[in-house]
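Why run this: before we spend reagent on co-expression, it is cheaper to look at a predicted model of the complex and decide which construct boundaries make sense. The entries below are exactly what would go into the expression plan.
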Amino acid sequence: MSVHSVISAHALDLTFQTNDGPVHALKGVDLDITAGEFVSFIGPSGCGKTTFLRVVAALEHPTGGEITVNGMSPDEARKARAYGYVFQAAGLYPWRTIERNIKLPLEIMGMGQAEQENRVKNVLQLVDLEDFGKKFPWQLSGGMQQRASIARALAFDADILLMDEPFGALDEIVRDHLNAELLKLWSATGKTIGFVTHSIPEAVYLSTKIVVMSPRPGRITDVIDSDLPKERPLEIRDTPEFQAIAHRVREGLRAGHAYEDG
Amino acid sequence: MSEASSLSQPQAQDICAICLIVRRVFDAVAPIGTVLGVIVLVWYLACIPMNRAWIEDRAGASQTLAELIPAVWQQGSPVLPAPHQVGGALWETTIAEPPLRERRGELRGNPRSLIFHAYQTLAPTLLGFLVGTFAGMALATGIIHSRAMDLSVMPWAIASQMVPILAIAPMVIVVLSSLGVTGLFPKALISSYLSFFPVVVGMVKGLRSPSPMDMDLMRTYSASAAQIFWKLRLPASLPFLFASLKVGIAAALVGAIVAELPTGARFGLGARLLTGSYYSDTLMIWSALFMAAICAALLVGGLGLMERIMLRRMGARA
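The model came back. Tokens follow.
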């Protein structure tokens, strides 16, 4: 484990006991993520990419191996507000306005009213939703709702942002736009981001490190460090360097027999 | 548009707007009006066979239909009173009769006023409904937080509703009155007994309605059970709660009426039903029934209004 390691997993196992026998969601996962990295997890359904994120967030508990988050156990890290979590759906509470949705974690953490207002204003600016704070979630488009949910995860300023297929339900045009926005946000805030996706272009476009996973048992088949520049216009996806990395991801998925029934 | 056109454009628009309003009112009134019309028609027709025997007793069987029909709709003490007779009786006992009157220098309830009787039933209904609602919400909160309560309380709550209220009400009323407790409280108790159950069932469902993702979000904030309750479960349960409250308040009204029957209460809608059946006064029975229906409609309608105001404030689509 390096000194700068933010998330460090060693021989991590997670087996679910089901009626059809044990399911090995994660088997022998070794991974180190250092501060400020943008790490994508890619693989077909059942490869354990979401499970790994949930273990980091202490929403699931491993049955073997070790994992530390900021040098602590995931449970301790959660209590220390180490991460913000963005789910597949925006998951905004429909009875709260956008502002009050973003205040939800701040209320729970017992922050003062003035501090709450201040932070809401800042994160709404960050995700470009300044004028929508008083709206209710249903009054916003799907992409805007997901941006609001990112704002909510950013509001308490955790160092780590965990994102579980946050743009999976959106159409490709909106998704491209949000990917570009997310990169800007990442370079502006310097957070460590763990990002689950099943889109190869999305993973390559966003990441500094791509973790390729495969199912039964859920394991890592390849870890690819991207050498693309930090500044990435959408057109970068047409360059040979981008294509080369995408090709390697595809090879990694094939090596894990991930195409068989993915 | 030709110059000969008889309407200027604004006028035409005004007429269209009026057409639209008429159309809307018609759309709203037509379905319920049709149903009401059919019911009234069937009712008038039903009066003929129901009241015929009495007329024929009096005037002989040789009545022509033309003689019979007006008679069956005008009869003094009919088996089945005609709708306009019930309407008249309702009018005389509500609008035409003051709910309070002076007696021995004191202002007291007027037992000839149906509004006074309705109040006698509504007061315990509302008290019992409030008690039942809070008891139901408290039980539901316990049930979702404690597996032991989930397993132990729910079967009893269901069993409690299996016993006919007509069997329980006399025991409760008689036992309480032997302890010196009479009047409002025993009636309210029966009302709360009937109204807590739908609240428990609806509230449990509502408090459990947040999705796993909504719950996971709270867990990522390390939220306490109390915070999850107040900030997620309770607001998510409100639409379910209101549906239950509407069932519960109607049940509370039934409870209060039933509670008046076994001990021969003198005041209240249930008492009116009982008195009416003692004296075979069908008009008294029917007007009490209609008053009960009007009360139920007002109570449920009031809750519906509260629901709309509350859910709109909570961001429900208009």
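Chain A has a mean pLDDT of 89. The beta strands of chain A are 5-18, 21-34, 38-42, 64-69, 83-86, 160-164, 192-197, 209-214, 219-225. Bring this page to Monday's planning discussion.
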